[in-house]
Design brief:
The protein is of the alpha/beta class and 356 residues long. Helices cover 48% and strands 13% of the residues. The protein has twelve helices and ten strands. A six-stranded mixed β-sheet has the order 3-2-1-4-6-5, with helices on both faces. A four-stranded antiparallel β-sheet has the order 7-10-9-8. β9 and β10 form a beta hairpin. One of its GO terms (cellular component) is cytoplasm.
C-alpha cells in the first residue's frame, strides 16, 4: 500500500532532505542496501528519465545521505526516439535538483542483429552502464524494476516456454559484466512509485518523461501491458502480487534444485576441471536428475542451453551407448561446444575453429 503522505528523510547529521519522499520506498531501499554483504561507499542509479528510475534516484539520494554514501546517476541515450534528447535534458535537470553527478553514454542499437529491437536495446544499455560504472570505479548499480515489471516478466517468460530458472524472473541482486545490479523495489507496486512522482512534481515542478514505446503494442512487453493486463486487472485485481510471489517460489525451488545438481555432479566422479564425468555413474540417476545434472554441467562449462529437441537427442545417445562408452562416433555439437564420449567418460570441449 502507498504511504498516506510523503515523509522527509534526514541525513545522519539530522539535516532534513529537501524533497518529499515515500516512507515505503525509503524503507525498501534502505533494507536492500543494508542486506548487502558490504555497505557500498558509492553506488550508481540507472536513470532513463521515467517516473520509476527518477524516483529511485530521488530516494537513493535521501538514503545515501543517511548512510554517508556517494551516488552517481547513469543515463544511456539510445537514439531510438526523436524525443531522446529531451529525455537527456530532463535527466540533467533531475541531477541538478538532487545535487548528484551525472554520467551519460550514447549507444548505437543493432536492430538488424537478429535479437529484436527490445533485446538489442537492453544489451546495449547494460554494456553502456557497465562502461560508465567501471569508469567511475563503482561496483553497484541500482535498477528501478518493481512488482509490476516482475509480474510482466513472469508472464512473458511463461508464454515463451521458459524453464524453472526463467520463471524465477528478475532476482533482487544479480551480477553482470563485473557489476552487481540491485533491484530494491521488486516488492513495491508501481502505484506507490507514481504517487511519489506526483508528490515530487507538485513540490519541484519536475516531470518524468513518457516513452511512447511503453504503450505501443507492436512491442512485446507493451502488448502484454496494454492488451492482456487490463483483462487480468478486471478479473483478478491482485494478479501482479500473486505472479510476483510465484516468481519468488520458483527462485526458492531453483536454489534447491541447484543444490541437488551440485551434489549429483559431485557423485559422477568428475575430473578436476569439471569437464568430464562417469557415464556409468550418470546412468544410476533417475531420468529427471540425468537431465538436470546435464544442464548443470553444460552451464558450468559455459555452453548455451540446448533446445528441448537437442537435449532429448543428447539423452538418447548417452543412454544408448555401450556401457563402457567406447563409441567414438558420439559427437554432439551445441552452440560452440562439442560433447563426446570415450573410455566411459562424457567430455565437453570448445568446438575447434574452422580452418582458414
Amino acid at each position: 500500500m502507498t504511504s498516506p503522505s510523503p515523509a522527509p528523510a534526514s541525513s545522519a547529521g539530522g539535516t532534513a532532505f529537501p524533497h518529499p519522499v515515500s516512507i515505503d520506498l525509503i524503507a525498501a531501499l534502505r533494507r536492500a542496501l543494508q542486506a548487502l554483504p558490504q555497505p557500498p561507499g558509492r553506488f550508481a542509479v540507472a536513470v532513463s528519465g521515467g517516473a520509476d528510475s527518477a524516483m529511485l534516484a530521488l530516494h537513493a539520494a535521501a538514503v545515501a545521505r543517511e548512510l554517508g554514501a556517494g551516488v552517481v546517476l547513469l543515463h544511456v541515450h539510445h537514439g531510438l526516439q526523436a524525443a531522446a534528447d529531451g529525455w537527456r535534458d530532463q535527466v540533467q535537470a533531475l541531477a541538478g535538483l538532487l545535487g548528484l553527478p551525472l554520467r551519460q553514454a550514447r549507444v548505437e542499437v543493432d536492430a538488424a542483429g537478429g535479437k529484436g529491437i527490445e533485446a538489442a536495446a537492453r544489451d546495449a544499455r547494460y554494456a553502456a552502464l557497465a562502461r560508465l560504472a567501471h569508469e567511475e570505479g563503482i561496483g553497484l548499480v541500482l535498477l528501478a524494476h518493481h512488482r509490476n515489471d516482475q509480474a510482466e516478466t513472469v508472464l512473458l517468460r511463461l508464454l515463451r516456454g521458459t524453464g524453472l530458472a526463467g520463471m524465477a524472473a528478475m532476482a533482487p541482486l544479480t551480477s553482470r559484466d563485473g557489476l552487481a545490479y540491485l533491484r530494491p523495489w521488486l516488492e513495491q507496486d508501481r502505484e506507490t512509485i507514481l504517487q511519489a512522482a506526483r508528490q515530487f512534481a507538485d513540490a519541484s515542478g519536475w516531470q518524468p518523461v513518457q516513452d511512447p514505446t511503453n504503450a505501443d503494442p507492436r512491442y512485446t512487453r507493451a502488448a502484454l501491458r496494454e492488451l492482456l493486463a487490463p483483462a487480468l486487472d478486471a478479473r483478478w485485481p491482485g494478479w501482479r502480487g500473486i505472479v510476483a510471489r510465484h516468481a519468488r517460489h520458483m527462485a526458492e525451488a531453483g536454489e534447491i534444485l541447484d543444490e541437488v545438481a551440485r551434489e549429483d555432479f559431485a557423485a559422477l566422479e568428475p575430473d578436476v576441471d569439471g569437464v568430464s564425468f562417469s557415464l556409468a555413474a550418470w546412468r544410476q540417476l533417475s531420468p529427471a536428475r540425468q537431465v538436470h545434472v546435464l544442464r548443470h554441467w553444460l552451464e558450468r562449462n559455459g555452453a548455451r542451453m540446448p533446445t528441448e529437441a537437442r537435449m532429448n537427442d543428447l539423452l538418447r545417445q548417452l543412454r544408448g551407448l555401450h556401457s563402457l562408452g567406447h563409441d567414438r562416433q558420439l559427437r554432439v555439437e551445441q552452440a560452440g561446444h562439442v560433447v563426446r564420449c570415450h573410455r566411459g567418460r562424457v567430455w565437453i570441449e570448445p568446438r575447434p575453429a574452422p580452418a582458414p
